[in-house]
């Protein structure tokens, strides 16, 4: 099976010293493997580190033209691999073996996409650690469209921080959608399920990847998730609204704080979840907000600064 790892980069210099040796070990293990780096005109020494690394192709896009879905689609169309693996620059595979484990599930022809388990970095705060535990459990599974009755919107969950796709299946659904504020992975997951494919979660394939978001950052992220769900309303129609999953998350986070003996953070817990709910609801109604306000509420100000109609 021909395999390609695609890594979008922007000012990635702090991450490359740890990431590149893992990728080198993986790509040199067998024939038919390739690395493709897509640099959004980094302003640090990313290009110099890649040149010194000496493995893989480097493509360049302007930072103003980078698009979460469109750029990944374009990159996947530049290779002939049967399976394309996407990594973000801040996701560090625990070892080269973990990339092997992620791609092994494609021996099943019904599996069109797979994603691995994300572990928190040691510096991650308790709320970020719980998020990783909640979204990326200990046990692997494979889900199809019939599972939406049980798992709802979670059935279509994928994360392009560490995910692999069968290239022919991506092509069949028209690749990732261009011009999404975020969620190109969940969009593809939903389309692949509706096309009759299955999605795999591979808990044995692990990367370190986490964020210690502030309250304001979480509010903005959930605003953007609300925008995504409003723009792609078919996802909620086909798989169900996320409110039930949100309640399950809040209960899980409270239990996690209890186990961590961190109930001193209960006020922060209440504030964070209230702000996430508020951000999400405002995002769902973004069409009724003025552009100047949206730019303050969103994590992706540059995305909004492109011309787009708002009611």
Task: Describe the protein's architecture and organization.
45% of the residues lie in helices and 17% in strands. The radius of gyration is 19 Å and the shape is globular. It is α/β, with parallel strands linked by helices and 311 residues long.
Label the structural class.
Answer: alpha/beta
Low-pLDDT stretches are none
Mean pLDDT: 95
**Termini separation (Å)?**
48 Å
Give the total of beta strands. 9
> Main β-sheet: number of strands, strand sense, barrel status?
9 strands, mixed
- What proportion of the residues form beta strands (DSSP E)? 15-25%
Discrete helix count = 14
Shape estimate: globular
Residue share in helices? 40-55%
Radius of gyration: 19 Å
How are helices and strands ordered from N to C? EHEHEHEEHEHEHEHHEHHHHHH
What is this structure's SSE topology?
Elements: E1 3-9, H1 16-27, E2 33-39, H2 46-53, E3 57-60, H3 68-76, E4 83-87, E5 92-93, H4 96-104, E6 111-119, H5 126-135, E7 141-143, H6 148-151, E8 162-166, H7 167-172, H8 184-194, E9 198-208, H9 215-231, H10 233-239, H11 243-259, H12 266-284, H13 291-297, H14 301-305
Parallel strand pairs: 1-2, 1-4, 2-3, 6-9
Antiparallel strand pairs: 4-8, 5-9, 6-8, 7-9
